[in-house]
């Protein structure tokens, strides 16, 4: 792969975001006329590259993607069969209440099904939460170095966003508590956190919640909760059952291997679910997603395999990173944040040329780290081999 190809590729990348910083006919001081000032100020969310994109743009073959924390096993066989069965019905709208899936989720966590709502991915849930709770001028508190949509959606709702830096790659709930004032409406906690994989303990979270004024809601993002091994990390649903003001958000994109279908859900007091349903798109979860989610919940073999492969992969990667003398952050999720000691973009690009897609970390302000998804044994070996070559 030549440097020229890489250059052409970056030029094309820049063209994907033509408005940013450009002055011209429709722009005043770099702002696109007519667009809300807050939107003009935002930087676009840049997801992990897809295998198709890298193959097309760089001409690299045999690519592995370890950039978006997807399930490396591919989808559950039962989920694929359920989708096949449902195909003949896609000319019909889905059940907008997702009754059967909600009842199944409710049964599993011991809640009333009225305490659950589903949407088009957890991203969509985060949007609905911000739109339902945040008024212009209110404060949202987020961890600085976490999942970017908390900031974006809070700003778009007109809220003031206060970012609390992590301490040793962990969310700092003591500093978060100090930032709470009478205007604070929403606090986002990501447990385990993306991109660090670290979790807050039950002791920390309980102390934090006990001191929180009643007008503040905690949006607890548990996108990776199914991977957690540390028993000190709590389950958000327990707080909900005890009557705390928590909104527990989860997804079928990671552990359940259905990222492409976009299935997220939220668990909260039914009165707040009812409020959110007023603004959620009525058919946010499509028929195929609804059926596939039900099927993968029943696929215990797939879940056991997913858990096992993540545990083994984590142990393998820890061992190999130690051998290479690289620092990493111990993880409770299906990805590892590691310090390569070299510029993140350069390591990312060099790995890309070897057909391995990882996540660079400059957008989180980390200059020399990368985030890598724990893959199958074969993928992990290939990643380590490529990384060793690059370094
Ligand atoms: C912490 C966190 N929350 C939410 C999501 C979004 O999940 P979904 O695919 O359901 O939109 C992600 C995806 O990367 C994530 O890392």
Question: How would you characterize the overall build of this protein?
Answer:
This protein has 391 residues and is of the alpha/beta class. It has two domains: 119 residues, Aspartate Aminotransferase, domain 1 (Alpha-Beta Complex), CATH 3.90.1150.10; 222 residues, Aspartate Aminotransferase, domain 2, CATH 3.40.640. It has 15 helices and 15 strands. The strands form four sheets. Strands 4-10-9-8-7-5-6 form a seven-stranded mixed beta sheet, with helices on both faces. Strands 11-12-15-14 form a four-stranded antiparallel beta sheet. Helix 9 links the parallel strand 7 and strand 8. Helix 4 packs antiparallel against helix 12 and helix 5 packs parallel to helix 12. It starts with a helix and ends with a helix. 41% of the residues are buried. The protein binds pyridoxal-5'-phosphate. Pyridoxal-5'-phosphate (PLP) binds next to helix 6.
Helix and strand topology:
Blueprint: H1 3-15, E1 27-28, E2 31-32, H2 37-41, H3 51-58, E3 64-65, H4 77-86, H5 99-109, E4 116-119, H6 121-133, E5 139-144, H7 149-156, E6 160-165, H8 173-178, E7 184-190, H9 202-210, E8 217-221, H10 236-241, E9 246-251, E10 264-267, H11 270-279, H12 287-298, H13 300-323, E11 327-329, E12 335-339, H14 344-353, E13 356-357, E14 359-360, E15 369-373, H15 377-390
Parallel strand pairs: 3-13, 5-6, 5-7, 7-8, 8-9
Antiparallel strand pairs: 1-2, 4-10, 9-10, 11-12, 12-15, 14-15
The protein binds pyridoxal-5'-phosphate.
Pyridoxal-5'-phosphate (PLP) binds at residues 69, 121-123, 147, 190, 194, 221, 223, 251, 253, 259, 264.
